[in-house]
Structure formats: C-alpha cells, structure tokens
C-alpha cells in the first residue's frame, strides 16, 4: 500500500490527473445504482426537458433522466470495453509469446492469420460480422476482442522475440525447462511493461470503437444506456443550442485523455529513460 | 622504445597541447548527482601519448571525452579547466567547441562496427567531417581518404571506401575509423579502448596502424584502455585511475618496472601470466569425448569438420582460436543446442542424444554452461534467490528451508555474502553477476562445466578473481571444465589440455606444455606471438616475425580442401598445402597437430 502511494507521488502531474480521473470513473461505474438519482430505463417526463432541479441534465428523446443514463452508461460502456480489452490481451499476448518462443511453423501460421485479419479494415470487418450474426453481446465482444488481439499479438511477439534470444532463456532451455515455464517465468516478466502500456492504449481504442458501433446502431442495443448511442439519440438538440448531447461525448474524451496520460507515464518508465535535470 | 625516445627529443616537446586542471565531473544516478571524476590534472605535450588505465568505473572514458570539452548525457563537468592549445574548453560556447572537434581533436570509439553508420558507404562517412567543417571539398576529402587507406596498407585502398560497414572485417573497420579520425589532420586523438573488442591477431593489426599514425605523424593522443600490456606499446606516459581518482602518473617505463602504488602493482600482477601446474591424476577417466563431429547451421557450410576431443575428469581443457574458428559452435554441439551432422558425443560411457529435447534431465544436469556476458545470462527480473534456487528445486527437488540453506551455501562458495540473496542483477557488479552465474551452474551439481569466454567481458583484476574462483572450485568439487577462450594468457593460467581450433578443424591438441612450449603448428605460433607482453617495444619486435608478416590482418576462411591455414602460413608449401589434407604429426604421445611438416622441420 505504501509502495503504491510512493509510486503515485513520484508521478508527474499529468499522470496524477489521469489516475484521479480513472479512479473517479471506476467509482461511478461500480456504484452506479447508488449514485444515479433515477433508474436506467425509467420514463420520467417529457422528451428533451431542459436542465432543472428535478432533472439536473434534462431528459433525453424518450424522457429518461440524462444524468442517470450517463452514470449507468459509464458502467455499461467501460465494463464492456474492459472485458473486451482483457480478452484481447489474454488471447493476443499468449499467442504472441507462443509464436516467439516456439518459432518455426507455429510462428508462421499464427503470424499469417493475424496478417489476414489486419488486412481487412476493422470497422468494415466488424460491421460485416455483426450484420451476419446479429448484435447480441457475445458476438460484439468476440468480434472486437479478436480484432484487437491481432494488435496485441504483434506487440507481444515483437517484444518476446527480443527476450527469447537472450542467454538466460537459453540457460532455462538447457536446464530442460518446459515451454510453459520459459514463457511464464523468463519471457513474460520482461515484457509486462510494454504490454501494460499497450493495455491502456488498447482500452481507449476499444472504447472508441464500441462508441462508434453504438453510434451506427450496431453496438450496445437500447434500452441499455451507453455513451455512443446517447450521442446519436440526442444529436438533434445541438441544432437548438443545447450542449447536452456533447456530455456523453465529453465523458468519452475525458477518459481517453486520462488513460493516455497514464500510459505515457508508464511507457516512459518502462523505456528506462532518465530525466535529465 | 629507445628509438621513440630519440624521436621525441628531436621534436618540440616543450609546447603543451592540452592541460587539464582540477577536473571534476558528476554523473546522474538513482541517488542523484554523484562525483565520478574527483579532481584530476593532466598535461599533454604535442606529439605525446598518454595512456589512461583503470578498471570500469574509473572514469577513463569520461576524462577522455572531457578532454574534448564534452560530457555524455547524464554527466556534467562541474569544475576545472580544460585548456586545449590556449582555448579554455570548459567555458567555451558549444559552436566554438564544435569547430575544434573533428578538425583539431578527434575521437576513436571502442566498437567501430557500432560507430559506423550502416546506411552510408565508408568513404562517404570519411568525407562527412572535412566537408562539414569546410576544410575540403567532397572530392578532395575522398582523395585524402583513399590516400590514407593506402598508407595504412588496407586491402584495395582505392575501392574499399565504396563498401558498407558490414562488408569489412572488424579489424579493418577499426583501422578505417582511425583513418577517419585523421581526416582533418588533428593535433589530438582520443582513443577509447579501440582494440578491446578484437581478437589478439586483429589487435596487433590495429595497434600497428595506431602506432604508425600517432607516432610517425607526431599527433598527440590519449589512449584509454584497461590492458596495461597494450598501452605499454604506445604510451609515453601512463596515468592509473581508480574510482575517478588519480592513483599514479609516471613514464611508461617507470610504471612497468617500479610501480609506486599498491593498486598499480595489483593491475600489473593481474596481467602477469601465472602458469597452472597440472597435478597428476592416478587413473584418468574420460568424462566427455567427442568423436568426429561435423556440424553447421541450416544449409550453410560445415563450421566444424571432423573434430575429436576428449576431456578427462577433473581437468580443464581449453579450446582456443580466433573468432570464426568454431569455438562457440562446439559448445552448442556439446550442449545439444545444435545437433551435429555426423559424429557422436559420449558422456562417460553413454552416447548423448544429439538434440537437447531428447536428453534426459539427468544428462542435462551433468553439463552446465557459463556465458561470456553475465548481463544477458541473468534474467533482469529474477532475484539471486530465484536464479540459484531454480536448479536446486528443478534437479534436486529441494524446497523451503533446505533450499534456502543450500542457496546460502552456494553464495559462500562463490565468495558472496548472504545479503546478496534478494538482489536483482541490476544491483550487482559485472564480477558479482558472473559469480552468480557460476553459482547457478554449481547448483545443478554438474560434472562438466562449459565456460564460454567467461572472463573476456571483465576487467583484468575481476577476471583474475573469477579464474581463481574457478580453480578453487575445481579443486574442491573435482569439476571438469571445457574452457573456450581466445585469450591465451587466460588459457595458460587455467588449462591442463589445449585444443587449438582453426576454421572448424583441430590444428593442434595436447597438454598445455606440449602445445605451447615450444609451439609447433604455425597457427599456434601466430596466436602465441600475438599476445601482448608487458614490455615496451614488444609490438615492433613481433611485427618483424615471419608469423606476423604472413598471418595478421587476415580472416579465418573455411575450406573443404587442403589446410585452411595455408594462405596465412609462413611455412606453407605452395600447391601442396592448399590442396592436400595435412597429415597428423605426433611429436609425443597425446600431442598431435595437423601439418605437412614434421616436428623436426618446424623446430628449426
């Protein structure tokens, strides 16, 4: 605990700001039912009510409380993005490390599959899959996770390749260690820093991707609250000088910026560059 | 050296070129700014060579760079004056200093291979400095380059500059780097360990070039090295440094013959050859034997050709040869990393499976390996406890308290205290890292340890301590070593048996005294005569020998036909040596070499 505080205090202001924002989002999404004044899908008043004491941020196109939906939206969108990023990471880094450690035809096969997947523009690929299989949550998660896993695979393979040629990996092999041990104990600890940094960035991209899909109507389906579709549903208000539809967009932007600050700091730390004072 | 002193007295020795007074430099570490050079003075007269000697961390390179008014990233010059020919460099503005660098002061780094840009042709890089400084036009600069290459006896001087850096051998590249430093006719050259990364025969070639340039053209130089014998060949003055402090400064002859400080004596002592005497073993047992091994990579040529070696239990067998002779390939074949194309590896009486994957845990346990670079042989994320502990639990099934006791026992054996147990490799010095690698090998309770150039990346004093440790362990535990090295001094101090490898074939093999005293095979002679000796004038003497004239400045080439050494051999019989396999000559039992000549003819 003390250690975490120490690391926190040594971080630059930008990373501190980022961590505070991420913590804030985390608290809101975990405790959404207690924080939100109304239910997620409750129809409370007329459509497009202005900001008032009753509805702090007004109501949306169906008369649901905007603030409550923003809070629940955090939970849905962030939860989904986190799940997808985690799956993408487990899949991508595991296959990437296996490709690097085994080499030969395993590496060839895995790398070529990834090349094929990466050669198709990801948005078009996702639209295609989702319109064939429908927009049920499992399909949404699987599609985006696999698409993002290809990027993670690339990074994991490249960094693991540099580690796999080290003498200490040869020592482990000469000792008779199994592949699993070599990957887990010799390779993984030496590539965690770049992988963690990539995790932050990947999370942002997944997040934006879900929002984009939702905006197009293929993401999280109504009536579940989600920031992307909230922008779309209320977009007409902008024409009437009302900034409400920009709030979910702003929430997305703030989280992305915060995440990037933290990632920058982690990349800087893992690169081992010294601050020249 | 007498010749040199005469020459020195002929030229103007009175005028001072560089004067450094009270130089203090700080370096940034995790603990903040710390002093790494603590008030050093030096004076260098025109045409004089100053050798800076010390272990790593002594501040040699930092001082060398400071002589150019330069501090590396993470370093800063905090105090002192650096006066180069009347110009104060410490306070001079950056563009003032830049005008001097490359024109009047130049720098030759340790690794020419890393210092040349692989994306530009060599002559283009030569011309860059003079053209940038506006000293010459591009055409003149290239002309000058070719002229310098010619005067340095580089092969094909008119066209070699059109090559890329990867097309030129390491020694030649370093000589071209020296030529580049001469491009604008500087007054001072700073050499930063220019021969440390090179094999002995290549080292001579580069030293010869440096000597020609610096001594004959009357350029002043600062020569940084940790090898006293090398700098003794060149320097007029020697400066011994330790932890950023001056230990001793005197003329080269004085330092070599009458060192005043304890530390200087240690340095000299570490570099002096200590011959190991081979103890008699009552009934020798062959632990490892390699029969007729031929091996190579992929579809490439045979790197090893019909190599046979046998290793007796409790002995040290040294495998020597220049780079490219197949030493490391031999280690890979023995450990199973590279299955041979033909031939058997026998451990005691069993034939070992060729591939690593087919060997049993017990077979793997008996052979352990220690590497050249302890930095990359230790996982930076594993603590000493895990590094040494893993073989204990993997091979011996030790757990908990018992394992902990054993780890501490091993640390004691490698002369490190218990408090090292939780350190990460980053928190260890080079020598300590190598000790931990030794402990990791010992933890498996092996019978044979393959040592691949284990001391060549270490400072002289540290290397000597590691060799002493290996000998002590051999004595205590009856270990058998296969010791791969290009350094004949190291080999002489540790080996019982010597195998001289050339272009993948055994050139000579036998007990150390039989192989070295007197050397028969012309290649063994070349290797032996290339080891710098701790006396002045050795370089000139060696260059006049027939072996050196024929053999240095050439690369190892692998051939199927005849004797691979033929084209570098002063004794070669034309037509015969390059076409016929040399027969084995056996001057004594257990000692043989491959040559057309009989021992009697070679001894004449």
Work out the number of β strands of chain B.
22
The biggest sheet of chain B amounts to: 8 strands, mixed
Helix content of chain A: over 70%
Q: What fraction strand of chain A?
A: under 5%
Please provide the ordered H/E string of secondary-structure elements of chain A. Answer: HHHHHHHHHHH
Uncertain runs of chain A: 273-277
For the record, the count of structural domains of chain B works out to 3
Tally the helices of chain B: what do you get?
Answer: 24
CATH C-level of the largest domain in chain B: Alpha Beta
What is the CATH homology-level superfamily of the largest domain in chain B?
Answer: P-loop containing nucleotide triphosphate hydrolases
- How many separate helices of chain A? 11
**What is Rg of chain A?**
22 Å
Tally of structural domains of chain A: 1
Which CATH top level class of chain A fits?
Mainly Alpha
Query: Which protein chains make the most extensive interface, counting residues with beta carbons within 8 Å of the other chain's beta carbons?
Result: A-B, 17 and 27 residues
Strand count, sense and closure of the main sheet of chain A? none
**CATH topology (fold) name of the largest domain in chain B:** Rossmann fold
Q: Pairing-aware structural class of the strands and helices of chain A?
A: mainly alpha
C-alpha-based Rg of chain B, rounded: 26 Å
Mean pLDDT of chain A: 86
Quaternary organization: heterodimer
């Amino acid at each position: 605990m003390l250690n975490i505080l120490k690391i926190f205090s040594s971080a630059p202001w930008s990373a501190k700001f980022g961590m505070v924002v991420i913590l804030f989002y985390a608290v809101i999404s975990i405790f959404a039912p207690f924080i939100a004044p109304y239910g997620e899908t409750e129809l409370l008043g007329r459509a497009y009510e202005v900001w008032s004491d009753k509805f702090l941020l007004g109501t949306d196109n169906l008369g649901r409380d905007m603030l409550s939906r923003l809070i629940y939206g955090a939970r849905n969108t962030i939860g989904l993005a986190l799940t997808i990023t985690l799956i993408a990471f487990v899949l991508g880094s595991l296959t990437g490390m296996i490709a690097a450690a085994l080499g030969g035809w395993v590496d060839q096969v895995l790398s070529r599959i990834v090349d094929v997947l990466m050669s198709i523009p990801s948005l078009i690929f996702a639209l295609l899959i989702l319109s064939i299989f429908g927009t049920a949550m499992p399909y949404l998660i699987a599609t985006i996770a696999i698409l993002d896993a290809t990027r993670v695979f690339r990074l994991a393979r490249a960094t693991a390749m540099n580690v796999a040629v080290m003498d200490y990996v040869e020592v482990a092999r000469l000792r008779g260690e199994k592949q699993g041990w070599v990957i887990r104990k010799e390779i993984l600890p030496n590539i965690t820093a770049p992988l963690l940094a990539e995790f932050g960035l990947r999370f942002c991209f997944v997040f934006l991707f879900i929002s984009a899909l939702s905006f197009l109507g293929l993401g999280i389906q109504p009536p579940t609250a989600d920031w992307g579709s909230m922008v779309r549903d209320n977009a007409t208000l902008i024409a009437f000088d009302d900034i409400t539809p920009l709030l979910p967009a702003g929430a997305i932007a703030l989280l992305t910026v915060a995440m990037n600050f933290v990632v920058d700091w982690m990349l800087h730390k893992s690169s081992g560059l010294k601050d020249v004072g | 050296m007498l010749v040199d002193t005469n020459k020195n007295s002929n030229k103007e020795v009175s005028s001072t070129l560089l004067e450094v007074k009270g130089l203090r430099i700080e370096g940034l570490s995790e603990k903040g700014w710390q002093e790494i050079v603590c008030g050093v003075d030096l004076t260098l007269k025109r045409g004089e060579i100053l050798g800076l000697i010390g272990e790593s961390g002594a501040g040699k390179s930092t001082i060398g760079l400071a002589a150019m008014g330069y501090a590396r990233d993470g370093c800063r010059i905090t105090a002192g004056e650096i006066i180069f020919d009347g110009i104060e460099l410490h306070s001079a503005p950056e563009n003032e200093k830049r005008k001097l660098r490359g024109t009047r002061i130049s720098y030759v780094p340790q690794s020419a291979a890393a210092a040349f840009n692989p994306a530009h042709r060599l002559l283009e890089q030569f011309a860059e400095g003079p053209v940038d400084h506006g000293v010459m036009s591009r055409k003149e600069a290239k002309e000058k380059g070719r002229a310098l290459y010619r005067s340095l006896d580089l092969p094909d001087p008119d066209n070699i500059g059109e090559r890329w850096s990867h097309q030129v051998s390491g020694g030649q590249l370093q000589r071209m780097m020296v030529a580049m430093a001469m491009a604008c006719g500087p007054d001072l050259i700073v050499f930063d360990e220019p021969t440390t990364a090179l094999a002995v025969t290549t080292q001579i070639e580069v030293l010869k070039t440096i000597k020609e340039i610096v001594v004959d053209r009357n350029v002043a130089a600062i020569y940084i090295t940790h090898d006293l014998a090398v700098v003794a060949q060149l320097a007029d003055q020697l400066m011994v440094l330790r932890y950023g402090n001056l230990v001793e400064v005197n003329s080269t002859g004085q330092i070599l013959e009458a060192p005043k400080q304890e530390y200087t004596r240690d340095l000299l002592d570490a570099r002096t050859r200590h011959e190991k005497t081979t103890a008699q073993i009552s009934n020798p047992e062959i632990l490892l034997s390699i029969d007729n091994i031929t091996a190579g990579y992929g579809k490439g040529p045979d790197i090893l050709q019909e190599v046979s070696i046998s290793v007796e239990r409790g002995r040290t067998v040294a495998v020597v040869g220049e780079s490219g002779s197949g030493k490391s390939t031999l280690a890979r074949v023995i450990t199973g990393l590279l299955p041979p194309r033909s031939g058997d590896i026998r451990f005691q009486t069993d034939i070992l499976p060729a591939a690593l994957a087919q060997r049993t845990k017990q077979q793997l346990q008996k052979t352990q390996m220690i590497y050249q670079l302890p930095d990359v042989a230790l996982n930076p994320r594993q603590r000493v406890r895990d590094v040494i502990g893993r073989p204990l639990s993997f091979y011996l099934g030790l757990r908990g308290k018992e394992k902990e006791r054993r780890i501490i026992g091993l640390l004691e054996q490698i002369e490190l205290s218990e408090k090292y147990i939780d350190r990460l490799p980053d928190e260890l010095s080079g020598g300590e890292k190598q000790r931990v690698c030794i402990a990791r090998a010992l933890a498996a309770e092996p019978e044979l340890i393959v040592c691949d150039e284990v001391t060549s990346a270490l400072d002289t004093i540290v290397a000597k301590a590691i060799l002493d440790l290996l000998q002590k362990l051999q004595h205590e535990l009856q270990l058998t070593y296969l010791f791969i090295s290009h350094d004949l001094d190291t080999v002489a101090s540790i080996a019982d048996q010597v195998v001289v490898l050339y272009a993948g074939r055994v050139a000579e093999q036998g007990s150390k005294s039989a192989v070295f005293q007197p050397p028969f095979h012309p290649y063994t002679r070349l290797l032996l005569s290339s080891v710098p000796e701790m006396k002045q004038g050795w370089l000139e003497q060696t260059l006049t020998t027939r072996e050196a004239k024929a053999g240095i400045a050439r690369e190892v080439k692998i051939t199927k036909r005849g004797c691979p050494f033929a084209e570098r051999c002063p004794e070669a019989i034309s037509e015969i040596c390059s076409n016929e396999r040399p027969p084995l000559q056996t001057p004594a039992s257990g000692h043989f070499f491959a040559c057309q000549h009989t021992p009697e003819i070679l001894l004449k």
